[in-house]
Each structure stands twice: as C-alpha cells, then as structure tokens.
Amino acid sequence: MKLYEYAIRRTLLLVPVLIGVTILTFYLSRIVLNPLGAYVTERTPPELIPAIEKKLGLDKPFYVQYAYYLRDLVTMDWGWSKVAHMPVLEALMYRFPATVELAVTAFLITIALGIPLGILSALKNNTLIDHIIRIIALTGISIPVFWLGLTLQYTFSYWFKTNGLPSLPSSGRVDPVLLQAHPVNRITGLMILDSLIQGNFIVALDAISHIILPSITLAFLDIGTITRVVRSSMLEVLRQDYITTARAYGLPRRIVIYKYALKNAMIPVATISGLMFGGLLGGAVITETIFAFPGMGQLTVMAITFNDSNTILAFTVLACFIYVFVNLAVDIIYAWLDPRIKY
Amino acid sequence: MSRRTGRELFLMDVRYSLWLISRNKLVVSGFVLVAFFIFLAIFGPLIVNPEIAQRVDYPNQLKPPSWQHPFGTDDIGRDLLSLIILGARYDLMIAIVVIASSLLIGIVLGSISGYFGGVIDEAMMRITDIFLAFPGLILAMAIATVLGRSFTNLMLALIVVWWSGYARIMRGQVIAEREKPYVAAAKILSIPNYRIIFRHILPNAIYPMLVVATMDIGGAMLTAAGLSFIGLGPSPFEPEWGQLCSRGATYLFQAPWIMFFPGITILFASLGFNLVGDGLRDVLDPRLRR
Amino acid sequence: MLLKVEDLRVEFHTYRGTVHALNGVTFDLDKGEVLGLAGETGSGKSVTALSIQRLLPPNARIVSGKIIFDGIDLVKLSEEEMEKIRGRRMAAVFQDPHTYLNPVFKIGRQFVDILKQHDPDVINSDKKEKVAREKAIQMLKEVKMPAPERVMEMYPHELSGGMKQRVLLAMAYSLKPDLIIADEATTALDVTIQAQVLEIMKELQKKSNISIILITHDLGIIAENCNRVAVMYAGRVVEFGRVTKVLVDPKHPYTQGLIRALPRTDKEVKPISIPGTVPDLVNPPSGCPFHPRCQYAMDICKEKVPEYREIDGVRVACFLYGR
After folding, report:
1. Do the Cβ atoms of C113 and A253 come within 8 Å?
2. A286 CB burial (10 A radius; 0-12, 13-18, 19+)
3. CA of C317, closest CA in chain A: separation in Å?
C-alpha cells in the first residue's frame, strides 16, 4: 500500500490506545482521587456538597461517569484550574507555544550536536577524542536535569554577572520591560519566530538569550543518548559488507561515510527520536520550573504544589496525546526512510 | 588505511592493549562507585547519627563549605555532608526497589504473554501499549499526585511506569526462544509449562535485560530525584537528595552548595550504575568474546 | 605480467593473539589470464584478495612483501592513491550478494555512483547522470539481466541471489578494469545459478580479455575455468602452475590429498579425506605447516620451511623435491 494509506491505517490503530489512555486517566482522576478536590476547599459549607456531587455526576455508575468524562474531553471542557484561575484548557493552550518553543529548540540542539559528535566518535574510534566524547555522553545520561539547570543558572546568570562578565538571564522568556517598549503581536505564540517575522530583532535577541540556558539543560540528556546511539550504529554500519563493496569500487572516503554509511546508520536514530521527545516533555516540566519559563510544565508543577488535580491530569492527557502523535509521525518517517519496511 | 611505519604500528599495538585495560578501568570505577553508595545506604545511620545531623540549628544556617562542614550547611543549619550520607538510603533504595520490582513483574507477565501467545498476548500488548503511550515522567507524576505525596507512593508510581517496558522486552525474548529446539524437546518430555518458562527459557532470555536493568537503575534514580524535586517525594524534612536540591533551589544565589552537592552526588551514583551497565554490555557482547 | 605477488606476509591482531594469516604468498598473473586460488577455509585465500585491494580491516597489517600491479607496488601506496586504482583498474565480486549491496539505495543509484566516479565517458559528458544510467542498463543487458530498466529502480532486497550477483558482476565489468577478483563468488548460490553466473563470467572475460583471480575451494570450478592455479595452505602457496598439470599430476602432498578427497564419477574410487585439521594460525606448526598431516613427512619438514622449486613447469614448496 502507499505511504498515506499506511499512515491512515496506523492512525486508526491508535484509537484503542488513546481510549485506553483516557480510561487510565479517568481512573486516576475520578476513582483514585476524590473528584471533589478541585472544587471543594475547607471553606465550602458541608450542605452544598451533595449538590456539587450531583452536578459533577458523581452519583452515577462508573461507566456513565466515564462517558461524561470522555464527552467533556472531546468537547474541550477540561474543568477549572485552581492555580490558573481560568478553565484548564485555556490555561494550557496559552502556555502551549512556550513549551513547544523550548522543546523544539532543545531538540534542534540535540540533533545539531549529538549526531556530529556520534559520527566523530565512531570515525575516530579508540582515539582520545572518542574517549572524551564517550565520557561526555555517559555524563549526559547520568546527570540530573534540575542540578544541571540550577548549576548553569548559577554560573551563567549569577556568577558571571557578579564577576563582571556578560551574563544570561536567569528566568522568564523575555524581558517584560523590553517587550513593553517593543511590543510583539502574538501570531504563532512562538516568541522568537513572531518577533523575527515582525522584524523586531531586539526582542528576538532577548528571547534567544532567555531560551539558551533552559534548552541546553533540556538537551543535555538527549545529546548523551543520541551520541551513543549514533556512535554504535555508525560503527556497526561501517563493518558491513556493503561498505567493503563501496570501497572496493574506489568510491572516495567522504562519499562512503557520509552517503553510504550514514543513511543506514540514521535508521536507529529515527526510531529513538520519538522516545527522546517523550523525555523532552517530561524534562520540560522540571526545566520550566527552574527557569520560570512560562510553559505548561511550570503550570503543572504549580498545580502539584496546590493540589490542583484537574490541571495535572489534563496536562497528562495532553502530553500523552502529543507524545503518541509524535511517535506516529516518527514511525511513518521511518517507514519512508527504510525501503525494507513493507507497507 | 594508509601505509603505516613499523613504529606507528607498534604504538597502535600499545594503545590497543592500553585501551582494553582502560576500558576495564572505567567499569572498575563504576563498580567502586556503586559499592561505595550501597555501603553508604546500608551503613549511613551508623556513620552519622541521624538525631544530631537532623537537628535544627539556626545559628549555623547557610554556612559555606569549611573544615567543620565540608559541604556547608543548609537553611536550618544542618550539616550537608551528613545529610547526603543519610540520604543515600532513600535514593538507592527507591531506584533498586523500583527496578527490581518492575523487572520481576515485567519478566513474569512478559514470559506468560510471549509463551502462550493468542488472546493473552494480544491483551498484554494492548495494555503495555497504553502504559507506554505516556511519557514516563509525566505518568509517574500523575500517579504520584493522585496517590498523595509520600516516599512509598513515589516508588509505586515509578513501578507502574517501568514494568511495561520490561514486559515487552521479555515477551520479545521469549518469542524468539520458544521456537528453538530445546523448547520442543522439553514439551515432548511433558515438562509442565511453567517449568519450561522459568527454568529453561528464562536463563537464556535474561541477559539483555540485565544490561538494560542496570542502566535503568541510574535512570530510575534520576527520575525519582526529579519528581522529588518538584514536590512528589518524601517530606521536605527528609535528607533525600532530590529534596535537598529542592531546598537548595530556593537559596541558589546565596548558598549554591545546598543544591550543588546533593545534585552532584546523584550524578556520581547514577554514573556508577551506568558505567557498570556499559561494561556489562561489552562483556556480554558476543563479538568481543572471541 | 599484470600482477606479481612476492612473499606477502600479513598479520591480524586479535584478542587471542597475533594471527599469522599470510606467511609468504607468491604467485603471478598475466594479462587476460584466469588464475584460480584454491584452498580450504582458513588457508588465506580471502586475506590475499583483500590484501591486493588493500581493503584489510584496521587490526590487520602487511608485515612484508610486494604486490606489484602493472609495475606499481601496491603495498607502498597511500589510501588516496589506492582509491584511484580500486574500481577503475581492479574490481571485486564477493561471496554473499545479500550483504554486499547497500540495502537503502536503489540498484541504479549504486551503479551510477560508481560510473560517475571512474568512467571517463561519464565524467567528461555534460549529462553525467543520464550517460551513467544508460551505461548501467547496457551492462545489465550484458549479464543477461531481464528487464534491466526496472531493476535499476529496485532495491536489493527485491532481487534474488542470482540476480544480485549479476548486478555485482555488471558493476565489476562496467569499468573495464584490468583485474577482477572473484572471491567465492558463486559459493552462496544454487548450483544451477552458479553455472549461469560462471557462464556469464566466461563470456565477458573472453570478450574483454580481463584477468580474473577466481577464489574458490571447489576444484571443479577451477578445472573448468582457470588457466593456472595456486593452491594455498596455512597462508602459503604450496603449488602453483597450469591447471592441466597441477590437477592431473599433483606434486605437493596437500594437492594430492585434495584431489583424492573429491568424489569421482569416472572411477570406482571412494573419496579419501585428509587426516587432521587446519592449523591454528596463532601458533602455526614449525617448519612446513602441512607436516602434521603429511604422509611423507620427514625430519627436515618439522624444522625448516620449504622453498619453492620448479619441477616440470610447476612451482612446489616441498622437501620431497630437493632441499
């Protein structure tokens, strides 16, 4: 079948999984947790509680409740967010572009650094450079995200500043004073993109300076992972017989490595990039908190502090859906890349 | 591969041998680290008196590293080095318990699913699909939140997240093994199914899982510390490393050591496990065993 | 004289120690000649082939010896210089077609890349891609490939083993090299396909007068296709001469043993295998490597390595023919 037919088929196969996901989150939010939590505080008069229960449909059997839950999800009624003081969906959607901007920047950094490092490490196998890169990669996968973020923050924001060196901002997404002076219209919600489109280079530069530290923090773990994968994949490919054929026909080294070997070596990278994205989503939660970056992750952590389960679980469902679709896209790209996959 | 002089070849020889040794050195240091932290986890409270270490001591607060307090003191005056030593048991315990439990659950369920196939297998695949559809940290976060903030709930949440991965791997291994002749032989001999699975197939299927599991201990430690950092772990008073970093974040600019030392301890602990895992993989790699 | 290999010695460094893969290989090859390189697994046939092309893995090194190809000693060349020779003047067809073609590129792409690299007609034209494609299709026709235009658009996994081998043959011949090394090129194929591929090779060889080194353990193939044969054992050439002489009247005890081990349809004789096993090349036996298995072994065979002697136009390395 053709590629788009394959894409459609895979998407349909996702539906049972997505339903399963909603069942799980439903279970967590309604059954494990007392659903009154978001709506009832200590100050609510006890007489009102039965009425609230009836309104929330808590007197009905579970499968009916689940139906309501599903209906609410689909109709975009995700409840009220205690910490944001607005409907959950609105709160998440407002912060969505910030998280996307952070995740995408981190992903680009990962690819831009991780893949070349992995290739270099493989080509210079067993030399000093290889060992150094391997140690860096190993450190990358052993490092706690929050520690890295905080250390970078301390060093490049505080220590540099107090020692008279040019420093990076320690928090936020953009300097509010600057933004006021040079306003930017919200087109895509991606600050860097929006300001560039509108020719507002001052804000763009400022936004970039704000995103550097958080995105490096986020990216570091994935750089470690991807470097290792690229390295071992490349080494594996270079030992293959078809590389011997290419060399036996006198194809120059550059073509053999970067065309013939690389395309094969990138296949495992495509496979894990979906997984890495999941890691980025999770890591964003911590990173945004440390750098006070106004994304969905920061909101969620605030929700944890204030026990706002609506927000937390809504974010969970949203993150899950995003993750699933990103993985689907990766699978389709992979099927397209590797001609041996039959579809 | 250009022409090499005899001298270059000799040096290549030497470097090759040195590399073999140094490779092992890294693994050896990994083992040393792991052993060190396990020692701390077990004997922590014997080295440092918890009562004294955890005592609030305001006059001593926020002191930078010095001879009396090699890692400084925190915001209520406790010696950070002692806290870190005491905290070892939390982080190591949670990582090892989580991985061991999920490994166990995953192996059992994965073997059954892979061995019997059919409806059981299909059902298991769907279930693991659902669990694996969540980004790990986020599912753990959701579960830990609804269960309530505590150390045990955190462990539970992580086990729920981790088991499905192992179940999948085990299932794959069992499916690969069950077609092999020794399984057919065992069946002919009327050996009961459960014995075939656990005494015949399991030992063969388990090797790749060991490597993954060892490195996952490091990963579980990082995830647990991360969740603890955002408020889902043990109570703020406990000396768990993630907790300490969380406290430290508040005082980052005034007293960076509070966050720095517990964090770097986590780094070394997880590095140790990762080194061991790497080394295990090289040892078990059939190609290198010629 | 196209190729002259003189006393080639090659070592491999492995975890178990140093493997002495080649211990003084000497033979030569004329223009337009088909040379057979015969021997059991582990005799060093493939290592010889790889050494000639300087495609040895990183843990191997050429200790000493000469490989004189058209007057140039290949051992002394740099990698860049070798790249100019490989493909253009020397091509190879390997054993397992399944693993020797890049799975993520179409056949056409791999073929065209080679032509664009080496073929002067392609390099000098304006429409390189087009000219290369036409040439490739032409070559596929020469190896009797059905529907060559379609094959160009296919991936390796869509072709059968025999077809893949033909593609490799076509690629090898397309550059009209002086030498083609066929390393067990037919071993992995069915007997009927094997016969077809050898047929094609024979035809092409006659047409273009290319020299071929045919590496195989199958003496039957050597008998039918080769002019001369070099019999290898434990990294040395033990007997070297015209096929009509060596196979009909073998001089070296090993060659005799090989022939005796063949099943015969013309006589009522049972095949007799050579006792013992191939030597461990990390710790090769002293003196002549064959002496532990040789029925004529003398004391001197254990002590010294025999030199080459010319008997009846054939070169043998054995003390039976003088000291």
Report:
1. no
2. buried
3. 32
The CA-based angle C73-C76-C79, given to 5 degrees, is 115
pLDDT of residue B220: 93
Residue C239's SS3 state is strand
Instruction: Please give the full DSSP string across C175-206, using - where no structure is assigned.
Output: T--SEEEEESTTTTS-HHHHHHHHHHHHHHHH
Strand-pairing partners, residue C231, are C38, C239
Neighboring chain C residues of B2 at a CB cutoff of 8 Å: 78-79
Contact present, B265 and B242 (Cβ < 8 Å): no
The amino acid occupying position B238 is E
Among the listed residues A203, A152, A174, A202, the one whose alpha carbon sits nearest the alpha carbon of residue A293:
A174
pLDDT bin (cut points 50, 70, 90) of residue B12 is low
Chain B residues with CB inside 8 Å of A319's CB?
A: 134-135, 138
User: To the nearest whole angstrom, how far is the Cα of C34 from the nearest Cα of chain A?
Assistant: 20
Q: Which of A146, A151, A232 best probes binding to B when mutated, by most B CB atoms within 10 angstroms?
A: A146
Q: Which of C183, C169, C168 is nearest to C38 (CA)?
A: C183
In angstroms, the CA A32 to CA A35 distance is 9
The Cα of C67 is separated from the nearest Cα of chain A by a number of Å equal to 17
pLDDT digits (tens, 9 = 90+) for A133-167: 988 999 999 999 999 999 998 888 887 777 777 77
CA A221 – CA A225 distance, rounded (Å) = 7
Report yes or no: C55 and C90 within 8 Å, Cβ to Cβ: no
Whether B110 and B228 have beta carbons less than 8 Å apart is answered as no
Q: Quick check: B186 pLDDT over 60?
A: yes
pLDDT of res. B289: 37
Element (H, E) at C319: none
Query: Is the Cβ pair C104, A263 closer than 8 Å?
Result: yes
Q: Which part of chain C has CATH 3.40.50.300? A: 3-89+178-321
Q: For chain A, give the number of residues.
A: 343
Residue A267: exposure state from Cβ atoms within 10 A (0-12, 13-18, ≥19): middle
Domain C3-89+178-321, second-level architecture: 3-Layer(aba) Sandwich (3.40)
Q: CB distance C13–B16 less than 8 Å?
A: yes
Residue in the structure block whose two tokens are 């959950």: A88
Query: CA-to-CA distance for A90 and C293, rounded, in angstroms?
Result: 86
Q: Where are the beta strands (DSSP E) in A62-154?
A: 80-81, 86-87
Give me B49's structure tokens: 């008196």
Rounded-to-integer distance, Cα B239 and Cα B41, Å: 12
**Mean pLDDT on B161-184:** 85
Domain architecture of chain B: domains with CATH: 25-53+69-288 (1.10.3720.10)
Q: How far apart are CA A250 and CA A252, in angstroms?
A: 6
Chain A residues touching B259 at Cβ < 8 A = 147, 150-151
Pick from A73-87, A170-184, B205-219, C115-129: least confident:
A170-184
Q: Which helix (H) or strand (E) holds A288?
A: helix A262-290
Chain C CB contacts of A252 under 8 Å are 83, 117
Of A242-246, B104-108, B152-156, the least confident: A242-246
Helix %, strand %, coil % of chain A (to 5): 75, 0, 25
Amino acid at A46: P
DSSP conformation class of A24: H
The single-letter DSSP state of residue C119 is -
Q: Tokens 């740099």 belong to which residue?
A: C78
Tell me if residue A342 falls in helix, strand or coil: coil
User: Are residues C79 and B290, on separate chains, in Cβ contact within 8 Å?
Assistant: no
Burial class (CB within 10 angstroms; exposed 0-12, middle 13-18, buried 19+) of C6: middle
The edge-to-edge listing of strands for the beta sheet with C228-233 is C90-93, C179-183, C211-216, C34-38, C228-233, C236-242, C314-316, C309-311
pLDDT at B288: 43
